[in-house]
Specification:
Helix content is 49%, strand content 16%. The chain contains 12 helices and 10 strands.
């Protein structure tokens, strides 16, 4: 596979059905641009292609591929990023067509994995990313090998890709077993810590939400933890657990401690393999007594992003866990219709905060205390 420079000049393309409306199409390509910039790429051209069905061989089709190559020559591009999940043979065909022009081709999962690799700091996060990469690369290695076999092999012969493919599959299978074993150790250790907290009778609340909604900012604002905050997608990959002190119901009553955890942000079309790779980290969310779903109040697509997060939470089996919807970044949304949101999401105890200036944080703490008492 052709490698790219530290700051690749990227052409972005999203293949969408003809029925998709303009706003949704714009949101998808804008998010891809944000992902590319988070990785460190320079976006030079954004293309949207409407097709009822993706091209069987290259996903984008021969005509669009010629157009991309022409743009690449003019703009000195060295990377094509397709905002879809491609089959191994499709990506291999794109790579082969772009190789003479010194370009690489990535699909959406490739890009997300590259960002994960860039942001991983702990041994566990690195293992989780390695597992996701193995799961993503396995079918691709097999597909590329079969393609090479068909190109070079004949009836009754072994193609040049066949033997190497089997070796690579065995190697990846061995690696996957080893990584899973190490992740199981980390999960057991995390489980021991959770069991200890349960013995102490400490309730737990987990901060979840779309990536870049302000989850780490909320953790910092509530607990003064000092977690890393960045205006970038997937800035947080590791789980952090902090103590949150809640006042008693009356001045005379004792307060209580809640353990607050923050973990990886979600995103639309997050592939199941990536969710499964981060399963041990997400155990804090799965086992929590309460979920704080953080939402960017100034986001024009906040309803769609709420639905995306809820879909992933459903995959994780947390449908029955009580929720508080925390509409964050109120400093950027002065015209937000609070009454309409409060009515629409009444079952989710909507609260409105600005982690930047501190408004609404006491409301969040009261909501946490109330929901935990009612649980």
């Amino acid at each position: 596979m052709h490698t790219v420079s530290r700051a690749p000049r990227a052409i972005l393309i999203d293949v969408i059905p003809p029925s998709m409306d303009r706003d949704d199409a714009a949101w998808r390509i804008t998010e891809l641009e944000s992902l590319t910039r988070t990785f460190g790429g320079i976006v030079i051209v954004k293309l949207i292609q409407k097709r009822s069905l993706p091209d069987y061989r290259t996903y984008v089709g021969s005509g669009k591929l010629e157009e991309i190559i022409g743009i690449a020559k003019e703009e000195r591009a060295d990377l094509l990023i397709v905002n879809n999940l491609l089959k191994p043979k499709q990506l291999f065909a794109l790579e082969e067509a772009l190789r003479p022009h010194h370009m690489a081709a990535w699909d959406r999962v490739d890009l997300i994995l590259k960002i994960f690799q860039k942001h991983a700091t702990t041994a566990e996060a690195k293992l989780q990313i390695k597992l996701a990469a193995i799961k993503h690369m396995g079918p691709r290695i097999f597909g590329m090998g079969m393609e090479l076999s068909q190109q070079a092999g004949g009836i009754g012969t072994r193609g040049i890709g066949e033997t190497n493919t089997e070796l690579m599959r065995r190697h990846l299978a061995d690696q996957e077993r080893q990584v899973k074993k190490e992740l199981e150790k980390a999960a057991r250790s995390r489980g021991v810590h959770r069991a200890r907290r349960e013995r102490l009778g400490l309730p737990t609340a987990s901060i979840v939400g779309y990536t870049n909604a302000g989850k780490s900012s909320l953790l910092n604002a509530l607990t003064k933890k000092g977690a890393f905050v960045a205006n970038a997608l997937f800035a947080t990959l590791d789980t952090r657990v902090s103590k949150l002190w809640l006042k008693g119901e009356t001045p005379e009553s004792e307060g209580s401690i809640v353990l607050l955890s923050d973990t990886i942000g979600f995103i639309q079309d997050l592939p199941p393999d990536l969710i499964s790779a981060f399963r041990s980290t997400l155990d804090e969310t799965i086992e929590a007594d309460l979920l704080l779903h953080v939402i960017d109040a100034g986001d024009a697509h906040l309803h769609e992003k709420i639905a995306e997060v809820e879909d992933i939470l459903q995959q994780l089996g947390t449908t029955g866990t009580p929720r508080i919807y925390v509409f964050n970044k109120m400093d950027t949304a002065p015209d937000l219709d609070r009454a309409a949101l409060t009515e629409h999401y009444a079952d989710m105890t909507p609260t409105f905060v600005s982690c930047l200036d501190g408004r609404g944080l006491d409301d969040v703490k009261r909501a946490i205390a109330d929901r935990l008492r009612a649980a």
